[in-house]
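Can you make up a protein sequence with its backbone structure tokens?

===
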Amino acid sequence: MTKRRNVVVVDGSNLATEGRTMPSLRQLDESVKAFLAENPDHDVIVVVDATFEHRVAPAEREQVKQAELSGEIVTPPAGAIGRGDAFILKIAKRADAVVLSNDSFQEFHAEHPWLFEDGRLIGGKPVSRVGWIFTPRIPVRGLKSKAVTKKAARVAAAEASQHDDAAPTPAARPATSRRARSGAETTRPATAKVAAKKAIGRAVTKKSTETAETTASTPKARTEPRLRAAEPKKRTQTTKRARKAGATKSGAVTEPSASRPKRTGEAPAKGRVEPVNTQRSFQRLVTDHAVGGPVDGEVVQFTSHGAMVSVSVGRTMHVVCYAPLAGLGSPTPVRARDALKKGETYRFTIVAFDSTRRRAELALARS
């Protein structure tokens, strides 16, 4: 950590959940106090997700609310794109600060390359009977990091190409100098020499053609063209046999798979995220409900990591939302069907909105 950076932005939600399934305000407070004990000349800015208050234990929720009112904890605006991670990195970039987190922020590597500078990222873990241990980190470059970095490189290359195409080509300056005029005069004799060489070449070519015609009048010369003329017919017959061999029972010739056009309705390309709901129904959900608010939903499907929940918006529209296992109870259930029953309606809490998939992330409300 360099001396010029005396501001540390703490990823509160990350440290509060380290080694746990649900966040703890007490653990977050201990981590911040331990860091300040080692670095008393530093100022800390603690940032937590907008849903932090609803995810901690009920006994700590009032303390979280008071900490937000007093400015000890900062939360991003409701509905912020990128949620708390993007908010943390923007603060750290503006303040030239260090980030205290165990997250690598892979989806933001292209936008914030300064994360790979020495001392810009510090991790921390609580060790039993020892306390909190803090150490410098280097962000991990995983699949998300490589994807966003390649995409940013392609966009930059396209913009550079458009800039080069739009740049005007400088017009050639007219040769009006004395040296240019003298050069033009010396070019005329050279042009005459080239014309003379071309004339000699045509004469030699004509003589060679006459010699070839005389030689072709012999019987041997007349036979060779016939043999050569028969070769295209053999190739044509071979092509017809190949077509018959490649034809199907119905008589249609099989085309290479690469030339077959993509059918309408095929699965999207790998890596592409498809929206779950329509733009109209998702916008109605965002308008009628806020992050942290309650909502009633019917369990319609189980997945390997959670459940799909149908939420009614308006009179006739429904929005399919997602409830991950981490939000279905403490401790986290192994399967969603252990906490929910298909076809039943439960009270959920909106954790976040996913504008890419056009759905909301839900957590089972505690009774």
